Amino acid sequence: MNELTILISCPDQVGLVTNITCVLASHQLNIIAMREFVDEANKAFFTRIACTGEFEETDKLKQKLLENLPNAAVVNLITQKEKQVAVLVTKEYHCLAEILIKNQFKTLGANVQCVIGNYEELRNFTEKMGIPYFHVSHLEKDKPQFEAEIKEILNQFELDYLVLAKFMRILSADFVESYSGKIINIHHSFLPAFIGANPYKQAFERGVKIIGATAHFVTDNLDEGPIITQHTAHVDHNFGVKEMVRAGKEVEKAVLLEALELLFEDRIFVSGNKTIIFK
Amino acid sequence: MNELTILISCPDQVGLVTNITCVLASHQLNIIAMREFVDEANKAFFTRIACTGEFEETDKLKQKLLENLPNAAVVNLITQKEKQVAVLVTKEYHCLAEILIKNQFKTLGANVQCVIGNYEELRNFTEKMGIPYFHVSHLEKDKPQFEAEIKEILNQFELDYLVLAKFMRILSADFVESYSGKIINIHHSFLPAFIGANPYKQAFERGVKIIGATAHFVTDNLDEGPIITQHTAHVDHNFGVKEMVRAGKEVEKAVLLEALELLFEDRIFVSGNKTIIFK
Amino acid sequence: MNELTILISCPDQVGLVTNITCVLASHQLNIIAMREFVDEANKAFFTRIACTGEFEETDKLKQKLLENLPNAAVVNLITQKEKQVAVLVTKEYHCLAEILIKNQFKTLGANVQCVIGNYEELRNFTEKMGIPYFHVSHLEKDKPQFEAEIKEILNQFELDYLVLAKFMRILSADFVESYSGKIINIHHSFLPAFIGANPYKQAFERGVKIIGATAHFVTDNLDEGPIITQHTAHVDHNFGVKEMVRAGKEVEKAVLLEALELLFEDRIFVSGNKTIIFK
Amino acid sequence: MNELTILISCPDQVGLVTNITCVLASHQLNIIAMREFVDEANKAFFTRIACTGEFEETDKLKQKLLENLPNAAVVNLITQKEKQVAVLVTKEYHCLAEILIKNQFKTLGANVQCVIGNYEELRNFTEKMGIPYFHVSHLEKDKPQFEAEIKEILNQFELDYLVLAKFMRILSADFVESYSGKIINIHHSFLPAFIGANPYKQAFERGVKIIGATAHFVTDNLDEGPIITQHTAHVDHNFGVKEMVRAGKEVEKAVLLEALELLFEDRIFVSGNKTIIFK
């Protein structure tokens, strides 16, 4: 008996659940968990089904499902769960360390293939954790050149996702396009507050009582991609910028790791600039 | 087009979702939301389905569902959502007020039929909110007599649920039995910590850094019924018993009202001493 | 023995705490709680001292404190704690009800003198709670006229604070100026996100995973006054605008009531566009 | 200019703050932050004062403070903040990794001198982080022998604190006595709920909706020491024991690291079985 995760999105219409479950039954698949959502505004249907059974021929199953669904349906059958990822960093260690520790102790739900940094600061730690570290400086070169060098490294690996773990360079629309839907970023504010640079300084100057962080898919609009997870933490007048940054790092790593867990377990649909997440 | 909520629990077996959805399709019902859970330990299946359609004859639909489910299946079809409730209180106003305010402004999701108190303190407020108040003192009578008087009042109404909103008398197993699965209590601690009397005093003496509250179904074991909702709040050394009580009241009313919302929307299954809640 | 709360703000310099405590000792006052904060950026010192003792002549004590502090010092001696407030509302009941319930049961820490609404919706409930309700419509008149009518009512009372409990009209700079530092508003978003109208709609369209609320002092820049309290709550793809509004109301009332408690206990200093809060 | 942290506890009496601040002023010390607390039940006074100034001779300052305080006063002057710690572990990595990562990147506020484990599982990781790992098996020896071996290792270092980072052996009263007030433990439940073994299994069987963790000082009563920090996380019917353990680990490490930060910054007083924490 194997486990199979089925992700389906399509225009909403009457009878979808019945159609899908009948196909699964006809293949002797047993549903162990099923979640669905109808986006009423966009008349769209989303479902995630975990099932068990024998299914050597997932192609046939997929074909059968497509035959019983509206034309625009997207069907994704996932039989293995271990994702392959690259991590991009600058100088801050806290998100990278959390990822590499979980990777080391096999609780990340993914394999980190490499770390790419635009500085050397995190090489030592990364290599101690047994992961190859590639230094690609952004200095003295233009963005296309910088990104070409990164891509050359990424191309050496078969990757499902790129994780920007406090990578402080803005990626071009072209680069983002090449990895469409595969780049996850941690932004150090609760978007849409404090878009752009230095959010903790902005937060300090505004005198807010909460700070936060946002994990999101990267699109070509800076800080505008579909949001996956957000959390906040309370601060008070005793927090200067430095203390906000320190408290914020704890939120950032929690938010990013929660997003990665959902991602690696195939629980996230992207629909326009929003996410649908079946926890 | 009407809305129908279907609750089903039964022993787990292969094909349940398919069987159920096929019956619904054959009745031209459209599933708008569906949640299911398999309790692997007890091999039990639970589902809550919200659907729309024409269904004058829910009896036939229920019959058809039962025919397609294992013998021990329980099927509950709910076409109207407004529940009728009685509230039992002692002297503290905070939970009662929250309930009666929402009742007054039609956002409770239920109708409060009456309030019964073993003191007179809350009569004035209750009556201002337009709800009949019945005083049943527990003094100078034994528990069977006390409970008989309460029952006599309750019997004047058609009630779905009794809400113990800081009702500080312990109900007998007999009384609880008469309203099995229909009594909800708010306990002023995060169970199972601080079972029994004066939990805030216990919390203060232990020097805890969080206090909490628990909404649960009442069974004949005091404070042992299936838990619906729990929340906690942080306290510190500045909190004496009085300050803990004050902070605790805010938690209590939030926890109780959240539980009532889930209850009145038919989102809760009870299974043994646990709840399964489809939020 | 009486209780006295002392609030002092002044330019920071060496020896302030010693100077202050020596004056208190010379008046036989016993310090039971003391909090202080130095705003290093602005070289400003703030302290809140709760003490007990005999002090018929607070004028002399104030004089003595001022003599021992830098020139620009502001000293505030508070011997009674019950504040007098007016509440301004539009149509939503949730914040007003929370305030009037606590007022009714004497746990607000203030007396509500009157409620002013630009609609009639909340008259009935307000009057049941024993508080005078004044209807001042904003229709068919200009803002100066509208505000003049409100002021005429407010002038009938001796008021410490005006609470905007979901009052949906923007007050003019002139009006705000007349009650400088005395107007508290609840804004239905975690500022500075979603400034302006319809924040829940903005939140829904952006696909955020948290919503929030902000209580703040009102200044003549809309939504830009010093922030007192903020909280957030998690939402997900199941939340439409309606559900966000509903969940948001619970956050709004919690945030506003927490701010009022701090305010009525004289725990808040305003410094520029920020607050310093001694919890 | 140096920084000095002063911790004082003594029986409460009138004039303590004045006495203390006058001594500090006479030594030209500038108070930059001061917190105090009066435990009314036990008539005890606690203060933490951060000040700056010149103070080669802290002995004289301490003497002067003692002369101006009640007989039983305890005065602690702390001029350097870096604490030296040993970490005791069993097999679980999550708390240890968090500590060693922060140690590695110099954000722990302490130096980890060594790790002692009763299994070999965590040696590899510890040594990669550059910290000596000592294996002391508890097998085939009695507790006095086991603890003697641990002590022999600890004696090689000058240690301020022992951190039990999921160390799953119960220490004897004798051992605890030797490091009185210096041992911190992370317990995997929100005490006092689920004292003892296997709290997540207990939590699962009780059907709770929150799990938690507690960091506390170790005394000779198991799980009864003064509590430093506690947090909770929500769980639901989808959580089996395994999922509760997984979610719990995130809470455990957050709770422990928060406690260590407070400890290493000298913010905690122990008074009886409680803590007073000046955040």
UniProtKB/TrEMBL annotation, chains A, B, C, D:
| Pfam families reported for this sequence | ACT, Formyl_trans_N
Gene3D superfamilies the UniProt entry points to:
3.30.70.260, Formyl transferase, N-terminal domain
Hydrolase is among the record's keywords: yes
Asked whether the keyword Hydrolase is assigned, the reply is: yes
Task: Using the record for this protein, list the coiled-coil segments as residue ranges, or answer none.
Answer: none
Reported EC number(s) for this entry are: 3.5.1.10
* Primary enzyme class: hydrolase
A Gene Ontology annotation in the biological process aspect, one of them, is: 'de novo' IMP biosynthetic process
Q: Which UniProt keywords apply?
A: Hydrolase, One-carbon metabolism, Purine biosynthesis
Which residue intervals define the domain ACT in the entry? Answer: 5-80
Q: List, alphabetically, the HAMAP family matched.
A: PurU
Q: Quote the NCBIfam families the UniProt record gives.
A: PRK06027.1, PurU
Q: Which family does the record assign? A: Belongs to the PurU family.
Q: What is this protein called?
A: Formyltetrahydrofolate deformylase
Source organism per entry reads Pedobacter paludis
